[in-house]
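Entry 14. Structure prediction run on the chain below.
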Amino acid sequence: MTGTFPPDTTPDPRDEIVTHLPALRAFARGLSGDMAGADDLVQETVLKAWTKFDQYNAGTNLRAWLFTILRNTYLSKRRKQSREVSDGDGIFAARMASKPDHDGRLALQELAAAMTLLPLEQREALILVGAMGFSIEEAAQTCNCAPGTIKSRANRARKALAEILYLEKGENPEATDKSVAMVMAGAPNGL
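Output returned:
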């Protein structure tokens, strides 16, 4: 039998998506709790459904398929958000950023070499006050001398280190290592 077949009168299920938008929006609003988030969720659901329509089984419940996509999208976003930290101002990111540690190691090696060139009394005063964080009084008690002596020794040591390390007055040494920074901190009149 030859002849023409009647045109396919089966409606395209994609046309039906529009009829489910109000229900999808209500479900999304119930899940997300806000209108903007719900609209974004519905938009993402429709986009996913449209691009994956080849996976839809014709004749099955389109509404259930769309709701499943919406729910899975919402749950995926929640899982992702639970692993993320909101940092709009960049405060957390700034704390996490670090300079390469090789700079600090090089500076520490230079400082260690320069420290060996200092007289023992200056070196111990600088280590106690600068690196160990002792107060002037504690360092004086440890070294069995007057607080003024410790201040003088530490200041002379810092000045000598600045000369050994070729630091100009007012120049701050770039130190990524805390020990280097602590030893050089508090130098008189800035190094």
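The CA atoms of residues 1 and 13 lie 31 Å apart.
Filed with the rest of this week's runs.
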